[in-house]
Design a protein that fits this description.
Number of helices: 11
Largest sheet: none
Number of strands: 0
Order of helices and strands: HHHHHHHHHHH
CATH class: Mainly Alpha
Shape: elongated
Distance between the termini: 12 Å
CATH superfamily: MetI-like
CATH architecture: Orthogonal Bundle
Oligomer: single chain
Strand content: under 5%
Helix content: over 70%
Number of domains: 1
Low-confidence stretches: none
C-alpha cells in the first residue's frame, strides 16, 4: 500500500492522540481529577486550556480523556471486526440455511440507527466503558458481515479455491488460509471508517453519561459539562474537548480515505 497525503495526515493525527494517551502521566501538568486552580480560569500560562467549573485543569483532562476514548474505540472496532469478519466469512462460504439466518439477523440489526441501538444497549448493559465498547461493537458487526459476505460470495468460486477443495483441504483452512487474506484490504478500509464513527458514538454515549462516571476524564462527558457554562463565557470548556473529538474522528476518516485510494490505485496498476 502506497502512502498518500490523506493517509499520512490521518496517521499523523491518530498517532499523535495515541502517543498523548500513552504518555499522559508525563504530558499532563496536573491531575485530571483534582483542583489545580480557581474556577473557570481563562486559558493562561499556568492552565493553557483554562480550568473547569471545579477548578480542574482542562488540558490535563483532555490529555487523560484520550485514554478513555481510545480504549473504547479500539475495543469496539476490534471486537466488531473480528466477529463480523468471521460470521461473514462462514455465512458467505457455507451458504444454505445458516447464511439465510445470519443474513436475516444482521439485516435486522443494520436496520436500526446505530446511535439509537448503541444507546439502548448501553442502558441495558449499564454505564461503564467496557459495556459501551460492547454496545458500539454490536452496532458495527453487520457492517463487517455484509462487506465480508459479499466479497466471499465472489471469491469462493475462483480457481484457487476450487483447487484447494480438490486437494481435500478442510473448510476451515480454505476460509482462513486462502480466502481471508484476500479480504484484508476491505477490512482495513472498514476498520478505519468505523473507527471514525466510533469516536463520535463514544462521545455521544459519554455525553449522556453512559460511558464513564465522574470524575473520570472523558471528552464527551466534559463536553456535556461544558455546555452549561457557554453562556457564562467559558467557551474553553466546550471548545477543547469538542475540538479533540472532531480532530480524532477526522484523523480516522482521512486514514480510511487514504487507504481506499491507495488500494484503488494498486488495482488500476
Amino acid at each position: 500500500m502506497t502512502l498518500n497525503p490523506y493517509t499520512i495526515t490521518g496517521l499523523a493525527i491518530v498517532l499523535t492522540v495515541v502517543v498523548m494517551a500513552l504518555l499522559a502521566d508525563f504530558i499532563a501538568p496536573y491531575s485530571p481529577i483534582e483542583v489545580s486552580g480557581r474556577e473557570l480560569e481563562h486559558p493562561n500560562s499556568l492552565h493553557i486550556m483554562g480550568t473547569d467549573n471545579l477548578g480542574r485543569d482542562v488540558f490535563s483532562r483532555v490529555v487523560y480523556g484520550a485514554r478513555t476514548v481510545l480504549i473504547v474505540v479500539f475495543t469496539a472496532v476490534i471486537l466488531s471486526g473480528a466477529l463480523g469478519a468471521v460470521l461473514g466469512l462462514v455465512s458467505g462460504y457455507i451458504g444454505g440455511a445458516l447464511d439465510k439466518v445470519l443474513s436475516f439477523v444482521m439485516d435486522s440489526l443494520y436496520a436500526f440507527p446505530s446511535l439509537i441501538l448503541a444507546i439502548a444497549l448501553s442502558v441495558a448493559l449499564g454505564p461503564n466503558a467496557f459495556n459501551a465498547a460492547i454496545a458500539i461493537a454490536i452496532t458495527y458487526i453487520p457492517t463487517y458481515f455484509r462487506m465480508v459476505r459479499g466479497q466471499v460470495l465472489s471469491i469462493k468460486n475462483e480457481a484457487f479455491v476450487e483447487m484447494a477443495r480438490a486437494l481435500g483441504l478442510s473448510t476451515t483452512r480454505i476460509m482462513f488460509r486462502y480466502i481471508l487474506p484476500h479480504l484484508m484490504q476491505t477490512l482495513a478500509v472498514v476498520f478505519s471508517m468505523n473507527s471514525a464513527d466510533a469516536v463520535l458514538t463514544e462521545a455521544a454515549l459519554s455525553f449522556f453519561g453512559l460511558t464513564v462516571q465522574p470524575p473520570t476524564p472523558d471528552w464527551g462527558f466534559d463536553l456535556y459539562k461544558g455546555r452549561g457554562f457557554i453562556l457564562s463565557g467559558a467557551w474553553w470548556m466546550l471548545a477543547f474537548p469538542g475540538g479533540m473529538i472532531t480532530l480524532l474522528a477526522l484523523g480516522f476518516a482521512l486514514l480510511s480515505e487514504g487507504i481506499s485510494q491507495s488500494y484503488a490505485v494498486e488495482r488500476i496498476e
